[in-house]
Amino acid sequence: MLWAICHKHQAKCGGDIDDLMGTAGLIFMEAYSSHDPEQSKFSTWLYQTVSFGLISATRIRRKVRVIADSEATEFNAVEQPAPKFRLGEFLAELSDDAMSVARLMLETPGELMAIADNKGGQPRNIRSTVRQALTKQWGERRVTKSFAEVKGALV
Fold it and tell me: Global pTM?
């Protein structure tokens, strides 16, 4: 299962499969004791834990750039600041439907937040509440397409 997770991550984010497997193994070993069988199946927990861990590791690697000093024989690690996220530019590149979804997720109306809070108040609860509200107006296909567009633009 670790290989499948790493392969999927590699397809989306790139990277060397051997490095990803090593990182995934470390993530798994460090987090093994945190699994609660009453909360989720082991396979679900493993997938989420390793996937999120690989995403975090990839972000860290992207922040640090290794440059070679032309006069030195060893490499010097130089931390480059992460590029600034510009919300206006991000939203401008989306379709109207995807922009509406992104805005609803960022500025969720009070009545939808109340419903999401009753479900647990987690980001997944907000997402499902917004999806349900939009599905009533737009239909499942349009909502799914819009969420996929926002997700694709973020990755």
Answer: 0.47
